[in-house]
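Re-run with default settings, no changes from the original entry. Doing this only to confirm the output is reproducible before filing.
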Amino acid sequence: MNLPTKLGRETVLIANNQSVGWVPESSGRGTLTLIISCLFTIFLCTWVVIHPRITKDPIRRLLHKAALFVKAVLAPELIAVEGLQEWNQGRKMVESCGDSTEGGLKLVQAFYIGMLALRYRTERGDRVIWPNQYEWLLNQGLVSWKDHERWGLSKENIRDKSNADSTVKLFAAVQVSWFVAQSIMRTAHKLPLSQLESMTLSYVPLFAVTYFFWWTKPKDILTPSLIDLPDMSEEQKTTFEALAVSNTFDDEHLDEQDSIWTIWKLTPRVFEKEAKDRAMREILSSQSQTTEQAKPPKSTTQESMEIWHDAPEQPSLYKRITTGLSVRRGSDLDGRKDAGGSDYNTPELPKETVLAYWDPDCYHSKIWPVTCLFGASFGALHLISWATEFPTLAEQWLWRAAAITSIVSLLIFMQYEKVVLRWGGPLTLLSIVSPVIYLLSRIVMMGGVVAAFRAMDPKIYDTYVVSTYWIHTL
């Protein structure tokens, strides 16, 4: 059965085998309408969907959101995975704090804390209270969930601060669904989709996945909840500070904290801190075994090694070896020196540049293959335009090759739990090169979209009869 279509005025005047460039607005649709519709949908799938962490400085806040927007446009799969990891961290926090809060801590509050929204005052400014730190305070009985309103953790306070609620998110979902419906109807009428429309559709599955994980997450909160820590012993305070995931996002005017490059950094996760602590314990264990084998005579050297062996039981030393927080104070060794007058040397983890680090709970779960497939869907949906006319045959095959390359390179990249910028053999090289290849393929596809407008299939500007189908009455 042939479905009715309506031809734009300019399109009728052109032979079917003749490509067209810019098409003015008419009774059909023009180039400007097509571009605006697609860019607006991409905007909803990127700028509107991202939920940045809390940053007090307004300029840095805007720059950070702009940086996330660039990432979402170039690699929306990674934003979706970030949403999964945040959701998983929040879910684990809710479960871990279930007993101490009697089920009062919900996902929205876990998200709020994970957004660096909870901070405590210090002499130099303020520091972040990380999810694992708040959990520790609850489990130690140092804070009570009954005081959560005073700490700014009530649902009402969080909703009041948030600049977007479920209604706004639902509106964006409806608008994106409408674009998808229009694309389906064009396909039903055997009308081709432009390359830009194919690219726009590619954002939709990842938009849906990200919204699913961030549906209850607060958005665009301007100010954090600033509190005073409860009274703690020196040992408790040192242990508490040792649990901090990072000091980069504290506000104590250190060089690293004031750097503009922090806008590009993703918010560190608790699992990263746990991994560093495990690595440090392995170093200490190795040193302890070496000391036992050497069996040195009783001396200050042996005392030093015994201190390393018992480091977890000595909070001040444990703080220094498990975190990078020693930059906050001149010394964390309480002034202790060896017989020669030198401070004890602190073992250090090898410095590394991490390109990607997937949450182990997600990476080793049954949903990770599904996550990879969703990531690959972005490049796969570009292939809707496989048979669409391009200005030249070379451009058409370049588009096809770039789309396939993006799929393969991303799947390879997501097979590595942690990607570090250092040489470790051919497989390591593959893990480093794959994201570079993916980025290049994305640039090629975006360039192909722009170049295609100079000579397109005239049927792209044909329209169908809206009144024929009930879906359009909505």
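The chain has a mean pLDDT of 82. Strands lie at 5-6, 118-121, 126-128, 225-227, 354-357, 418-420, 463-464.
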